[in-house]
Design goal:
Strand order of the largest sheet: 4-3-6-7
Number of strands: 7
Strand content: 35-45%
CATH topology of the largest domain: Immunoglobulin-like
CATH superfamily of the largest domain: Immunoglobulins
Order of helices and strands: HEEEEEEE
Shape: elongated
Number of helices: 1
Distance between the termini: 90 Å
Radius of gyration: 28 Å
CATH class of the largest domain: Mainly Beta
């Protein structure tokens, strides 16, 4: 060691390790509480098609590890205000159709299927586009 050296190599190493430990502690204290807000993703799948007339959606729960814990299957169609299908405790493989005579949805519409599970988790299972046929018979809001 020379007389003009400010800090010995041992002291410099100790200071460097101390700075790294403090940085890790600060970053951990900031990031770890965010991990508590992460929800698990449910494994369930559903498909939607149109009935033979092409006027109403038909949703089917296809399966998945969490399909048995689904409490409600809900289908929404763009251009309508409320859910067009709402099935309580849906069964895998059973098709669910709207009971409405007409949705008022004609042409290309976005369709979404949302699953509500027994633990309160709500998850979008499917979003896609269907082309509805025919003239609008009635509105869902009526």
């Amino acid at each position: 060691m020379r007389k003009d050296d400010a800090v010995s190599p041992i002291i410099a190493t100790i200071l460097l390790v101390a700075v790294v430990v403090v940085l890790v502690a600060v970053i951990s204290a900031t990031v770890l509480p965010m991990a508590g807000n992460i929800q698990t993703v449910k494994s369930a799948s559903a498909v939607v098609t149109l009935n033979d007339a092409g006027t109403l959606p038909v949703a089917t729960l296809v399966g998945g590890a969490d399909a048995g814990s689904m409490g409600r299957l809900t289908v929404y169609v763009s251009g309508t205000r409320d859910a067009v299908i709402s099935a309580v405790n849906p069964v895998v493989g059973k098709p669910y159709s709207s009971k409405l005579p007409g949705l008022g949805a004609v042409g290309k519409q976005t369709v979404s299927i949302v699953g509500t599970f027994d633990d309160g988790t709500v998850q979008t299972l499917y979003t896609g586009t269907l082309v509805f046929q025919g003239a609008a018979v009635s509105s869902l809001a009526e």
